[in-house]
TrEMBL record:
It comes from the Bacteria. The chain crosses the membrane at residues 46-68, 89-110, 116-132, 139-159, 171-190, 219-239, 245-262, 274-295. It holds the Pfam family UbiA. InterPro entries: Protohaem_IX_farnesylTrfase (IPR006369), UbiA_prenyltransferase (IPR000537), UbiA_prenylTrfase_CS (IPR030470), UbiA_sf (IPR044878). This is Protoheme IX farnesyltransferase. Gene3D superfamilies: UbiA prenyltransferase. It is found in: Cell membrane. Converts heme B (protoheme IX) to heme O by substitution of the vinyl group on carbon 2 of heme B porphyrin ring with a hydroxyethyl farnesyl side group. Pathway: Porphyrin-containing compound metabolism; heme O biosynthesis; heme O from protoheme: step 1/1. Carbon 2 of the heme B porphyrin ring is defined according to the Fischer nomenclature. PROSITE patterns: UBIA (PS00943). Signal peptide: none annotated.
Length: 297
């Protein structure tokens, strides 16, 4: 028997679960929630663990539900055709059951270990992503702008789980930075995979503006993300000079790395590189907020 004729091995249940729940993306949003928790307490305690568990469960449940909702469209796109449901590794019904169990568990962890506010914000994040943003993507190429509330909510959940008020100016400033960040992050993904999105029937800004104009618009929002970071020292999210320098250098690096978006002839490697840069910047931003209380001691 030739190698080409050998049957493909079925993924293990563990790998199917991790792919269904998008652990890397879910983990990234959970990490930003840690920034909100530490920023309020100006430190960390055992409650940080239950906060992260609750948010991670909610994020994984939301991701799994999203894959149930978009399974037909995922099957049409090369980037997502290998996901567990369109690939046949798990049925939509079982995936939906997994999503519900994870989401309810995450809500209950936040409610019982912390407070109603953090649990309700977690439920809002799931409802906004799965009930509003996911269907809106089928209707508008600009869906990511209101949909970016999803990026703003995890730090607010962490802040309120630690005992803070969701209306406090400091957490609003932190949430706003992550809100702005979410927009160019998604538009870079669109620039990288526009053909696949359009094949599956999703409207994209590449079809609205063209790739060159989208690149300039993305650069503008990237600069806006860097500029928004100036709110964090103003509203006392950051108070130590090492954290401020760390974030300032990260913002300057982000802008410098995005400058090629203004040139003619953008290609996939460029979008991929800038996409990786903006993801790394989110890591630097989150790390600066988490480390700030320890730098200021």
């Amino acid at each position: 028997m030739s190698v080409a004729a050998l049957p493909l091995s079925k993924p293990s249940p563990v790998s199917t679960f991790l792919e269904l729940t998008k652990l890397r993306i879910s983990g990234a949003s959970t990490f930003t929630a840690a920034a909100g928790y530490v920023a309020f307490l100006r430190g960390a305690d055992a409650g940080l663990i239950t906060t992260l568990i609750g948010i991670l469960l909610l994020a994984m449940g939301s991701s799994a539900l999203n894959e149930v909702q978009e399974r037909r469209y995922d099957a049409m796109m090369p980037r997502t055709a290998g996901r567990p449901i369109p690939h046949g590794d798990i049925s939509a019904g079982r995936a939906a059951l997994v999503a519900v169990i994870l989401a309810v568990s995450g809500f209950l962890v936040l409610l019982t270990a912390h407070n109603l506010t953090s649990a309700l914000l977690g439920a809002l994040a799931l409802g906004w992503y799965n009930g509003f943003y996911t269907p809106l993507k089928r209707l508008s190429a600009f869906a990511v702008v209101p949909g970016s509330l999803i990026g703003a909510l995890p730090p607010a959940i962490g802040w309120t789980a630690a005992g803070g008020s969701v209306a406090h100016p400091s957490v609003l400033a932190l949430a706003f930075v992550f809100f702005i960040w979410q927009v160019p992050h998604f538009w870079l993904l669109v620039g990288l995979h526009a053909e696949g999105y359009e094949k599956a029937g999703f409207p994209t800004l590449v079809s609205v503006f063209g790739r060159a104009r989208l690149s300039r618009l993305t650069f503008t929002w990237t600069c806006g993300t860097a500029a928004a970071c100036g709110l964090l020292p103003i509203f006392r999210v950051l108070v130590s000079w090492p954290a401020e320098i760390m974030l300032g250098l990260g913002a300057a690096w982000l802008i410098a790395g995005s400058l090629p978006l203004l040139k003619e002839g953008q290609d996939a490697p460029l979008y991929r590189r800038v996409f990786m840069n903006i993801n790394l910047f989110a890591l630097v931003l989150t790390a600066a907020v988490i480390l700030d209380p320890f730098f200021s001691r």
